[in-house]
Hints:
The chain is mostly helical. The chain has a single domain, classed as Ammonium transporter fold. It is built from 14 helices and two strands. Strand 1 (about 90) and strand 2 (about 95) form a beta hairpin.
Amino acid sequence: xxxxxxxxxxxxxxxxxxxxxxxxxxxYGGLVGRKNxxxxxxxxxxxMGVTTILWYAVGxxxxxxxxxxxxxxxxxxxxxxxVDITTPFGDGQIPMLVFFAYQMMFAxxxxxxxxxxxxxxxxxxAYLIFLVAWLLFVYFPFVHxxxxxxxxxxxxxxxxxxxxxxxxxxxxxALASVLFVGRRRVAEKGPHSIPLVALxxxxxxxxxxxxxxxxxxxxxxITVLAFVNTDIAASFAAxxxxxxxxxxxxxxxxxGLLTGTVAGLATxxxxxxxxxxxxxxxxxxxxxxxxxxxxxxxxxLHWDDALDVWGVHGVGGALGIIMLGLLGxxxxxxxxxxxxxxxxxxxxxxxLVAILVSSIYAFGFTYGMLWIINKITxxxxxxxxxxxxxxxxxxxxxxxx
Length: 401
């Protein structure tokens, strides 16, 4: 009864998105110091377990069951109630279980993105509470509002694969976390393993094809467009970041090339299926320049966003939504909308309002949530813990000697 080609494709896309979380762990793990590798990597990997349990229990239902035109869904499909191997999704081409698994991988990686901002400074028990609360009160509502038939979707806001629902809210939560926990007491000398960062970037780039192309939820010409636009934007962003940093620092930095790649991937995400390939190139160039500028601004303001989550994901996600509001074209995808440059002023305003609302809520709720968690268990690590975080909190070390 199901389309085997589309079902097979979505299972592959789901596997690709799953691979992004270990990729993120390697990316972040390489950027921190030798003595704190495991503490940052476990925060990504533990999300694979905790988020899966929460998604199965209530998350999937809260995002995609009921609540039409509202902020959150209901619990009709909690614990996959009423869902079996024959339950169809949408027009019946793929099983509901495939859609459940695919969206679960998005839920797993989104809070893990935040962890790079407060590297070395948040205790593991506090992070576990943070993970659950942030999913329940930030991620699930925005997924429902945008992809689950909620208020933003009903209003006409578009976000193909997560400019708002993934990157912007994670980036703004990262900024709130940085301002709450403050600066690191022990300065790090820089990335301890750039090859690990490169490995993580490669896994993320590879997985991102499933992230963006898979969001079409079937195989057609739009799937191909999203795939190609993903690669074009990432490539243009990587070279733009590399070139700009080379001009300013007189050195072609490998970490800059890798960071620019991720910035381009994050920025094209909301627009991948709604813009032309030439627009994707422009989005990539904009991402490389503007996200680099955001990271430079962060450094001048002395915000200790250790791994530049706000500058790459927060600014990149917001920029992608803005560029969609400018460059979206129904000539490219009739299911999309015309941006400002194609006569769609109303659509552009809606995208701006959505970014503003999501940014304020994600920042404000995250800051308040950390304040409450700190009343339950200490959020910030002590100076001794920060110095040797892996040993002090986890009793393990990434390297011997």
